Structures are given as structure tokens and as C-alpha cells.
Amino acid sequence: MKLAASILSIVSILCVGMPAGARAENTTDYLINPGDTLIVIVWHEADLSMQVLVRPDGKFSFPLAGDVQASGLSIDAVRQELKKRIDTYIPDAVVTVMAKETTGNIAYVVGKVLRPGPILMAQEVNVMQALSFAGGTAQFAKLQDILVLRRSGDTQTAIRFNYDDILDGAQGLIFHFLQAFWYRFLVDAKLYEHRYRQQHPDA
Fold first, then answer.
1. Disulfide-capable partner of 2 in 100, 130, 145, 153 (CB 3.0 to 4.6 Å)?
2. Which CATH class for the 7-28+105-199 domain?
3. How far apart are CA 6 and CA 26, in angstroms?
4. Which of 59, 63, 38 is closest to 48 using CA atoms?
5. CA distances from 53 to 10, 37, 43, 124, 127 (A)
6. Which residues on adjacent β-strands are paired with residue 108?
7. 52 burial type by CB count under 10 A (0-12 exposed, 13-18 middle, 19+ buried)
8. Domain-by-domain residue ranges, the chain?
9. What is the CATH number of domain 37-101?
């Protein structure tokens, strides 16, 4: 493997909430990440209208609802879960959930790029844009084999694509959007591939 990229989100997050083909996952709904700030409003219940921070464990605490799982879920999925729990105490509660800050939707671009490090995905970001945010590839980066890694819990997923094919229009990967939990770009990843094969001899 010669060029690889791996992204964390976030996000997401990219995250956020990464496709294979034209898109492997639906990007229409933002997927919440740890570190995101949400605004929760329960109409006519001032004590239940507040900002909440999604903790590193992917949850947030809310009165009457306890700890609520948020990471990896859409805003509407969290709203429905909150409403279900609050309805036990306040029947027919009108609950609104909004994302205030998506600072948890972060991607990391590492390896042979000019500016390796994290990028905040405040909107949909595709692979080409992420590499651009990192200043582009370095002079001697190998561009024929890019690897995008995603970790979700104990599972890691890898997707390969060829940068040169993208420029030639042979792949739809330029339209791929990074989502939550797509988390690292490894550039010129021969060492990574060697270690991966040692750990996964049957892959």
C-alpha cells in the first residue's frame, strides 16, 4: 500500500458519521460525535431546555432521561429517544434537538502531506477536499493506493482507492464524503500495510 489516508469523526464525521463506490453510506443525516454540543428544547418546560455536551463515551446526561446514547446517531434519532423517555413523565412532550457545535466531527490526515493533522468537518467533506485542507500531498508521496481507515468500536474497516484513477475520472471516489468515525488518512503507508498483514494474516 503506497498512499493511505485515515479519518476520525467525526464525526462523524465525518465524519463523519466513508463510502465505497459512489457512497457507501447515506450522508444526508449528520451523525453525532463525542465532543459535539447539542441544544435540547422541551416546549413549555424551561427547566428541560438546555445545552448538552456529548461525552467521550458517546452519551450525555439529561433530566428525566438519564444517560442518553448520542454518538453515531442522527439528531432525529436522539430526539425520538429523548421524547420516549420524557413522555413517561410529561405525556405528549414536544422535544426539539439541534446541533450547536460539531467540534467532535474531526478528521486526521497523516503521512506524506504538507500539513498533517486534524481538520474540522463543519460541513460535508470529501476525500479530495480533506487532502486539500492538509496542503496536498508531499513531493514523494505514492499516489496509486490510498487507504481510508474507519474504527467503530473494536472494528476497523479499510477502503482503498487510486488517486490517479480519480484524476482520470475512472472512479466516483471524488464524490465520497467522509463521515463520523472515518478517521485517518495514511499517506505512503507501506509500514502500516506490513503491520496490518502481520496482525491479520488471513486478510
1. 145
2. alpha beta
3. 19
4. 63
5. 15, 5, 20, 22, 28
6. 118, 184
7. buried
8. 7-28+105-199, 37-101
9. 3.30.1950.10
